[in-house]
TrEMBL record:
The lineage of its organism: Bacteria, Bacillati, Actinomycetota, Actinomycetes, Micromonosporales. Residues 287-304 have a biased composition (Pro residues). Residues 318-352 form the Gram-positive cocci surface proteins LPxTG domain. The chain crosses the membrane at residues 327-345. Keywords: Cell wall, Membrane, Peptidoglycan-anchor, Secreted, Signal, Transmembrane, Transmembrane helix. Residues 271-321 are annotated as: Disordered. It comes from Micromonospora luteifusca. Residues 1-26 form the signal peptide. It holds the Pfam family Gram_pos_anchor. This is LPXTG-motif cell wall-anchored protein.
């Protein structure tokens, strides 16, 4: 009995050891290694970009701040990297870097010691279809005249969010083959939007005379696309008149806001009957088609030159593998209880 009791207590004690020592030995602290990299001569940081206006090719400002932290004056360049479907259009005096895709060398102004300069560029989306509610990442790095390049830092590029726009329209009676349609587009969302189009699908005998129709070709010759590039604040209404010529009796036209996959509400399309008594529309229910998932731009990582550093996202925590410390603790507790029970049993048997 004494041997059995001793074995039980010894097993419980051994199983408690990994439970107490496991967390301390699970992830040893990394040792810091001395860096031989010299302090950068020129640094650069880019601000967040919001693309807006034309929903087919939205654009937005990018501000890059270049600093000279050195003790002497230096020319401050910066390397700009952009994801697929994003291009620089103006500002920054940028030139494409030969042999390095999606990279541009910009800037170059003389910076005094400790000085800085802000460059304002305009970047635009070149995605083949409208994109909404997605983000991508670009990066910038400072570079001096000798080609010494700092580490790249990321900045985010946001495409326009989906919006809620309500369409209403009324048509005056047709007089002498002419009518005027009063259009009202209300921003029923919670943020300002900029840029949309009104598409008017017209049958034979109906033609839009004003405003001017777009020559984008997106209507395929069946009507008129009227671009509206003004900013509409939340709860505000964009009102304008559309002039039509109408021949050969009563006609039916369809009005819809475009791009159709942008809007979260259904009252973004309606049908009007044009005749001697006029007509009105309050947005016939039309469900917008779902967004094309293939149109979502995804940034493609570009190869990093060996002379430049790259920024890396924060590493995710690695999952633990093997038997956990809590499992060892549970087994140890069971065996400890068993040993105590054997000890009590032995004392009772001795008394008996």
């Amino acid at each position: 009995m004494n041997r059995l009791l001793s074995s039980g207590l010894l097993a419980a004690a051994l199983l408690f050891v990994p439970t107490l020592a496991g967390p301390a030995a699970a992830a040893p602290a990394p040792t810091a290694s001395p860096s031989a990299t010299a302090a950068p001569t020129v640094t650069a940081r880019g601000d967040i970009v919001f693309l807006a206006q034309d929903p087919w090719f939205p654009s937005g400002p990018l501000e890059v701040t270049v600093k000279n932290p050195g003790a002497t004056a230096a020319k401050g360049f910066f390397v700009l990297r952009l994801p697929n479907s994003v291009e620089p259009t103006s500002g920054g005096d940028c030139k494409a870097i030969s042999g390095t895709p999606r990279s541009w060398l910009c800037g170059g102004a003389e910076l005094p010691a400790g000085g800085e300069r802000a460059y304002r560029l305009v970047v635009t989306s070149s995605a083949p279809k409208p994109v909404f509610g997605v983000s991508a990442w670009g990066s910038v790095a400072g570079r001096d005249a000798a080609g010494v390049t700092d580490q790249f830092t990321d900045f985010r590029i946001n495409w326009p969010d989906r919006a809620s726009l309500r369409l209403r329209a009324t048509a005056a009676p047709v007089v002498d083959g002419m009518t005027t349609v009063r259009v009202q587009v209300t921003n029923t969302g919670t943020f300002d939007i900029g840029g949309y189009s009104l598409n008017i699908t017209t049958p034979a005998g109906v033609r839009v005379t004003a405003p001017a129709c777009s020559d984008s070709g997106r209507m395929n010759g069946v009507g008129c696309e009227i671009p509206r590039r003004r900013v509409i604040a939340d709860s505000a209404t964009d009102s304008f008149d559309v002039r039509l010529t109408v021949t050969a009796g009563t006609k039916t036209v369809q009005l819809s806001l475009a791009p159709t996959d942008r809007y979260t509400n259904k009252d973004s399309a309606l049908t009007l009957r044009l005749g001697g008594t006029g007509g009105s529309g309050a947005g016939d229910a039309t469900t917008p088609p779902p967004a094309d998932p293939t149109a979502t731009p995804t940034p493609t990582p570009t190869p990093t030159p060996t002379t430049v550093g790259t920024s890396t996202p924060e590493a995710a925590q690695l999952p633990r593998t093997g038997t956990s410390g809590s499992t060892y603790g549970l087994i140890g507790a069971v065996l400890l209880a068993l040993g105590v029970g054997l000890l009590v049993l032995r004392r009772r048997m001795s008394r008996g």
